[in-house]
Amino acid sequence: MPTELEELVGFISSPNSQIRLVATEHLVPYSLSQPSIFKVNNLEPINNLKILVADHPKIAEHALSILINLTGDNDVLKDVAADDRFLDLMFILLIRPEEPNANLLAMLLANLTKWDGMKSLLERKQEAPEGLKSDEQVINQLMDLFVKGADGTYNKNADYDYLSYVFADLAKHDDIRNYLVKRQPYDSVIPLTKLKVFTEHKSVVRRKGVASTLKNIAFDIPTHPDFLAEGDINILPYILLPLAGNETYDEDEMLDMLPDLQLLPPDKQRDPDATILKTHVETLLLLTTTRHGREYLREVNVYPLIRETHLRVEDVDLCEACDRLVQVLMRDEPKEEEPDKPRIAEVEEEDEDEELVEV
After folding, report:
1. Which domain holds residue 124?
2. Residue 50 falls within a domain, yes or no?
3. Please, what is the average pLDDT of the chain?
4. Tens-place pLDDT, residues 222-260
5. Is 354 part of any domain?
6. Pairwise CA distance, residues 110 & 247, whole Å
7. Does 341 fall in a domain?
8. What are phi and psi of 184, to 5 degrees?
9. In this predicted model, what pLDDT tens digit does every residue of 117-133 receive, in sequence order?
10. pLDDT tens by residue, 257-276
11. Which end of the chain has the smaller Cβ count within 10 Å, N or C?
12. What is the DSSP string of 165-211?
């Protein structure tokens, strides 16, 4: 005999919309407490939930919430992420300017990109709505949704903040890293320059995702000169500013800093999230992988900023990251080392489970 919960799961495929609504609403908490009830009959409930994403908005909301919670399971994750027809539906819904569940779709996509096969998103195409002013590449559409979501100019129901987690996970793949630093023909803009400006945004989700994206792309050592040069990409000021508070520095220290770090307003606040600060420090550590990077960070006097961060933020992990960076910056360079010979940075890539989204 099936249990009451198992019977309730069966009702999500009912032809009666009211029954589907009640069933999905009541099942949301069980997607966290008893996820196994959705894995019966070769994941049949999961397939039914995928269909409901295009149902009435309230039913779709509950179905998406359940799928978001269940994609922490590897079997469910692979089943959903490898379903091309479902992905087609997701992306069509996500770019609709009136889509009420756009943020939930972005959250689900953030979980799906934990699966390595999602790097194929780079090749996915669909027609873009006129109001988005993007091209047919889905990844460009996601980038433009993220930018427009910052001020709500595209969809009043969505800020698309969780797309930052999508970019962070995708940036672990070489092809995606190459995309992020390559000027796009449709708007002549380098995608990474659209992201870097959000390191001090009011949304902690957006800041965290962008910080992780910058860190993951910094594993691409050959691109470091572009990250540090005062050209188009130039991510260094956007990494350093979140680390800066309202401290005052000696004049000789301040004059060597980047112009963006000089004469900050008295109400300037350091990012309050220690995990974000740690991510930025680890990105700086990655930028010291080559001798050029180490010498440039010394030249623009990054040390005092790290010193003040270490002194003023009480977080063990952040302080350890600051210590590692200071040790690299303060040590003498061996004379026999080739100027461009890379050194291994003491940074690991993001834990894939770290930013798993739940509802």
Report:
1. 71-330
2. no
3. 93
4. 999 999 998 889 999 999 999 999 998 998 889 999 999
5. no
6. 36
7. no
8. -90, 135
9. 999 999 999 999 999 99
10. 999 999 899 999 999 999 99
11. N
12. HHHHHHTTSHHHHHHHTS-BTTTTB-HHHHHGGGTT-S-HHHHHHHH
